[in-house]
Amino acid sequence: MAIKRLFIANRGEIAVRIQRAAKSLGIETVIGISAADKDSLGAQMADRAVVLGPAPSSQSYLDVNLILHAALATGCDALHPGYGFLSEKPELSRLCMENGIIFVGPRQETIATLGDKLGARALALEAGVPTVPGTDHIAGVAEAKTAAEALGYPVVMKASAGGGGRGMFKATSPADIEGSFERASREAEAAFGDSRLYMERFVERARHVEVQILGDGEGNVLHFGERDCTVQRRYQKLIEEAPSAALSAAVRERLHAAAVRLTAHARYRNAGTVEFLYDVDRDDFYFIEVNSRIQVEHPVSEAITGQDLIALQLRVAAGEGLGLRQDDITIAGHAIEVRINAEDPTRDFMPSPGRITRWGPPDGHGLRLDSHVYEGYLVPPFYDSMVGKLIAHGRSREEALERLLAAVKAFRIEGIRTTLPLDAFILDHPDFRTNAITTRWLEDRGLPAFQPDQE
Predict the structure, then answer these.
(1) Among the listed residues 160, 232, 166, 158, the one whose alpha carbon sits nearest the alpha carbon of residue 201
(2) Which helix (H) or strand (E) segment is 336 a member of?
(3) What is the set of active-site residues?
(4) Is pLDDT at 192 greater than 80 in this prediction?
């Protein structure tokens, strides 16, 4: 292993997950943390922890020069960005390369191209991958209304530089565009420093499916099957599973081929996810975007393939190549993951930071918990609210579902409010059990039926 000392530029459960993979490969770890995370499990596990700055992310996890300085000062020869924060900032990849640090991720130019949604769409079209019918950059309200008439309502406006629903809105009429265009543009500017918007035709009955890939940067790409992340609230995923139970074998094969073709065309290096919308009515899929990093939901892919994706990331970054052939990656069984967020779903998902007075996770065959917290841990109010991910693997979707539902109900957390009651409600809902859901299901049918007294 060419990597001897790894700097982890992240926090939370992914920092713990990266450390476990690194240590399995004999790699020493250094973690950069904020003052608010000095007592975190990630800091306790690392061979060395350095405080980057105060709690605000802008003065710690999002300061690229600070991160680089800490990595250099601690003698690290590689850096893993995790997800979120600086993981998709081309500047970090560039600075690492210029300073002799191995960046565990794609090259800066790849991140820049794929991070721009219009650039990614153009790349997909070059590679012969279908995209949702849409437009290039739209300059203003009048142009947007003309484009919407041509595409046909409803349409969806998206931020060229962003994701996570920011700068995004659905329009069913010219009035919707007039009412939301400028606000979305301002939101995109504030979130991404880029106010550009573009338009796509809105797919009425859609599912979110995505393909996990790993590339060597030379045009060779492997896939690890697909994930289904259709259960979402405000474009934020809550439950993920693999494989998707909505796809036929023929569509699945075409989906995998499209993801590999696109990322091979980009000469993609390291782990990434190619996201698609699956149109239920047309039985077809369209490219959405590439996330040039490891994803929160990667454990379900690991569960069905038996592969350690973080360890593979480190091996590829160290120059060991893919180390696998496509035939070596087999799919076995079904896996489902629920995110556990420190939020109160009965009060519009209000954040619930505070001291965890009881942390009693379930244990049993086929279960996995990825988390950074422990009994007595103080959930800080400054960052993402996720405190863990619970994953169940079974021989079938039904077995995985029953195993996960029982585990969610057995999980005991006190001191903070969490989304576990909502997770249990969804897993037990007839629509989820029969797979009769779309990306709108949770907000249109699930949440209205979720009552506070069901906790």
Answers:
(1) 158
(2) strand 334-341
(3) 293
(4) no
